[in-house]
Design brief:
Helices cover about 40% and strands about 15% of the residues. It is of the alpha/beta class. It folds into two domains: about 150 residues, Rossmann fold; about 50 residues, no CATH class. The radius of gyration is 19 Å and the shape is elongated.
Length: about 200
């Protein structure tokens, strides 16, 4: 995990932390901005584990507002429901502005600022290409936000992930050779490849 900008004074500076999804899961020790700041913007390429990380950080009792639900609220022009504004922790999935050019980002900013003002944590997920993540980030005081930039594993990290899946599937770690998965590498491709190996193993 890489901490690009760390706020040593305790206030004022933006924090950006980069790592794989596994760096933020399974009870691992987290950088202080991730644990302490009210708004976490979770970004990264498709399939990298953004929603998984956001849900893990928020906890099992968190409320969740998917992109479709966000759109429904924006199009209805009704106020955000109290169950969302006062939720102890919230996972907020952003719709794609590429698909919805009339997206009312001001109302999304309003929701995030309202929750910040109440001291309530929000995990904002840029789940699709063309979301308004940069615009929303700059609407939040740097002292209250952290950006989590997720990436896919590289090098030996890929092998360790594949070996983990081999263990889950009950097959030999010999199938974990990273070169067997075509680029661009993804978690989904690895799992699909190894699940196919399970079938081949049973057929032998």
């Amino acid at each position: 995990m890489t901490d690009f900008f760390r706020d040593n004074s305790g206030h004022g500076l933006p924090a950006v932390v980069s790592g794989t999804s596994g760096d933020f899961l399974d009870g691992r020790s987290l950088p202080s901005p991730v644990e302490e700041r009210l708004v976490a913007f979770v970004a990264g390429p498709p399939g990298v584990g953004k929603s998984t990380v956001a849900r893990s950080l928020a906890g099992p009792d968190a409320s969740e507002l998917c992109a479709e639900a966000v759109l429904n609220h924006l199009h209805s022009s009704i106020p955000w429901p109290q169950a969302i504004t006062v939720a102890g922790d919230l996972v907020l999935e952003l719709p794609s502005k590429n698909d919805h050019h009339d997206l009312d980002t001001d109302r999304i900013k309003e929701l995030i600022r309202l929750r910040v003002g109440s001291g309530l944590p929000t995990r904002v997920v840029a789940s699709a290409v063309g979301t308004t993540l940069p615009e929303l980030m700059f609407a939040v005081d740097p002292a209250h936000r952290v950006t989590i930039a997720l990436r896919f594993p590289v090098g030996e990290e890929r092998r360790r992930y594949a070996e983990q899946i081999c263990s889950e599937l009950g097959i030999s770690v010999q199938h974990a050779e990273p070169s067997t998965v075509e680029e661009p590498w993804s978690y989904e491709k690895v799992r699909t490849h190894l699940e196919a190996c399970v079938g081949q193993t049973k057929a032998q």
